[in-house]
């Protein structure tokens, strides 16, 4: 089997202003990235990278964005991303920058990385906690996500069995 | 994108996390209210948190795994939300905006660690889910990298890495579950044991009757289940040409045992009197034909419902009378066999019962039928000693009776009687289906095969075994002097067949009547012979005990004598070329002896054909095949319906882009022949034409009276007279013409009677006289072979208005069976259209040597835009469904229902005028067409409208009489063909 190989860039949108998070949506991210590409590499670079360029996943709360690009040209995109200075959406501009966390060959590997990364973040948060309530809440969420994991496993298996029943 | 693909994608994406964005206009709807109320206090209140926490998790849950509810709905929901998000890209997801939008419009002033942690936690869980779930369709061990693969991993879970074992186990269970449960209770050896094999065979022929040669055929033929039988369709080996050669030059064998036989017993007068109502002299010789009545010949005719001659066809049959024993009185008890195709049996049987008033199966008949039951059992002790059925007998105790192979009809209900008696006339009708086997040998070598394979029974006067009644009937017969002499006579005649010259002599003189006698007519003898058949096993054992292996086994007096009946098939009778083509012998055997005769025939080197070969045989003989070519009988109508649905299914199986657009080709009905429509349209055409011609005729009469000196006196006189005077004129012409007019008048009367009923049904013309007349008219009067035909043309009438008018009147909706042979290129197919060529075509044909035929101009597809519109509407409706779930207007749905039967490339149901749809006027259809190996050109058989044919003939030039154009449904090219009617 021959397939198109991609690279996935897992980025974090870092902004001072929390309002920026509002404008993290697919279109804004795409235009910002493409604009940066055009500025850095001109039409050629833009065209190269826009083959199969998509925003695969984004989370406005955590500011995580997953971008896809062809493997041949991901360097262009990668090097252009730091040039993004702001996100624009609905006429509002919010200064921010992209922090690339991980470059992966599959979505799956990016997801795996993201899990690790988030966990680390949570642990860091826990360490740097100042008051008790916060600490509790963070601990709770940390535990919760692990607990959920266990629950989900069960859940999945249930679902799978359902699937079996369907396909048969 | 097709639905299935979308579904697949939806399934694949089910576990992938969806995008999470904030609500567009008002900042963070979720977080703000609490914070705002808080008035800037840093820590979150626990209750708010509680409020918040389930919210986030719930949102995540909702996207990824809605509920553990039943799968399909679950997935659909997912799919739709996906689609929606796609559609509203950039505006954020609806779910997130929720009802909260109105509550607060303000921005958060700060961010707390806990919300941050919440978001992280939610994301982690989403990602975990996505990662943990495998998304591909492959099995677990297939996803492993190559260096971790191990042999036998697919069924030995322990070879997998431990982390994958759980999923692999589930998959393995699933696979096992999927596998079909193959219940092989017994081992192969047990299954192949003879008794179990027979049991299994008996079970399998409960639904569809097996012929006795079934096993033989099933190994070599494509079998089809048809008409309640399992029949060989065509050989699996390539043998199209070989079978033709066998038919034409060697010998082709066919098992026709599936043909049904009805036996009528009773007084000859009574039988004839009643049967005469069901057939007509007009359509050929009837039951009372002299050579047939004596039992010397087999006759064939077409049965109609009683007293309904030109309409309500029942079907074609062959019949054979049992020859008279001695020259007794005229009205003795006679026996008549009527052989028919299984599709026609029910209709004919019910009609016969009604005509003879044999409604009740009379009690006296029942014992007889019970003895004829298929489950006959041989003396048990004998079979037990050989069969060695140890376990079975132990197990089943009282059911120790050895299983007997089903001989005859396996589907028969043993309690039902197959014999009906008439109360007042004493006529007995019995159903002998599968009681008598029938093989057909076709081809010039069939004599040789018969004489080589069969030998006349030796005269035997001593009983072989006192206890068994083996051959007792034969011994009895041989003791009688007259029986002996008859047998010797028959033997002599049979041996004559070996020599070709003597065969010729035989055909000149004919077989004497007394030789047509056979013991097969006697039920008891047949039964005796069937029951006393030596088992194959015994025979084989005796063969193996022979001193010289392979030498002939001589059973001496124990050899069974089997009564058979040989019937000569005439071959091609009608037409001028290939007289007697495909003649041969039919051999009738008592049941149970099928394979015993079949194998010797095979060893004589015959080729065996199936249904397809039978079809070809009838095609080369140019006779209609049963039941395909009898469109006016119920079986034929049924067949046409099935054929249509089959062809339509086949058409629909092609991808739409690869289908032929029959609308553009100008083919109204590619899958069926609309006979009713055709005849109706021609009738209307005729009426309108008659009106216009009547006007012109009046004018012409006036002019003719003024000019009495005609170049063609006869034509002139006839045409100038009135219709009433015509008959007188006819008497002066000739005898044959006279007969025709008489018949015409008779039928005219009939037509008048039926005219009130106004039957919409079409009929097929089978009146021999009229057909002869027509065939004479069809021939071109100049050209090759004309001189030879002049003799036959002597007695024929000219085609004039006066002769045609009564024909039009009494056969307004009739079809004629015609044959076509193509002039140049072209191979006709099923449902090829027969059209009338125009004058320009003839002109072109005579000018250009290479002119193949005109071309039909391209038609425009008037249904295309409708279909496109329909599609659009459907699409819209689908979209509407996604938006507003189910509430769609019922009106629209109705409209869709109406046009659902629109298929691109086919005409929708109400057909326009079939005759004038194309550039050439339609005359009829071909029901059977192929390249003829006998003539080396395309040949076709089919029906044309009688009215149309007469119109065409009257307008064509003398030397181009009977020229038509053929066009296959899948092409626009017309081909020239010559039409002939063979009588």
UniProtKB/TrEMBL annotation, chain A:
Belongs to the eukaryotic/archaeal RNase P protein component 2 family. GO terms for cellular component: multimeric ribonuclease P complex; nucleolus. Component of nuclear RNase P and RNase MRP ribonucleoproteins. RNase P consists of a catalytic RNA moiety and 10 different protein chains; POP1, POP4, POP5, POP7, RPP14, RPP21, RPP25, RPP30, RPP38 and RPP40. Within the RNase P complex, POP1, POP7 and RPP25 form the 'finger' subcomplex, POP5, RPP14, RPP40 and homodimeric RPP30 form the 'palm' subcomplex, and RPP21, POP4 and RPP38 form the 'wrist' subcomplex. All subunits of the RNase P complex interact with the catalytic RNA. Several subunits of RNase P are also part of the RNase MRP complex. Gene3D superfamilies: Ribonuclease P, Pop5 subunit. GO terms for biological process: rRNA processing; tRNA 5'-leader removal. It is found in: Nucleus, Nucleolus. SUPFAM superfamilies: Rnp2-like. Component of ribonuclease P, a protein complex that generates mature tRNA molecules by cleaving their 5'-ends. Also a component of the MRP ribonuclease complex, which cleaves pre-rRNA sequences. It comes from Alligator sinensis. It comes from the Eukaryota. This is Ribonuclease P/MRP protein subunit POP5. Signal peptide: none annotated. GO terms for molecular function: ribonuclease P RNA binding.
UniProtKB/TrEMBL annotation, chain B:
Residues 74-91, 167-178, 376-385, 694-703 have a biased composition (Basic and acidic residues). Residues 1-103, 167-188, 376-397, 687-722 are annotated as: Disordered. Residues 116-192, 200-266 form the Pop1 N-terminal domain. GO terms for biological process: tRNA 5'-leader removal. Residues 1-14, 179-188 have a biased composition (Basic residues). InterPro entries: Pop1, POP1_C, Pop1_N, POPLD_dom. Keywords: Nucleus, tRNA processing. Residues 584-675 form the POPLD domain. Residues 44-64 have a biased composition (Polar residues). This is Ribonucleases P/MRP protein subunit POP1 isoform X2. The gene is POP1.
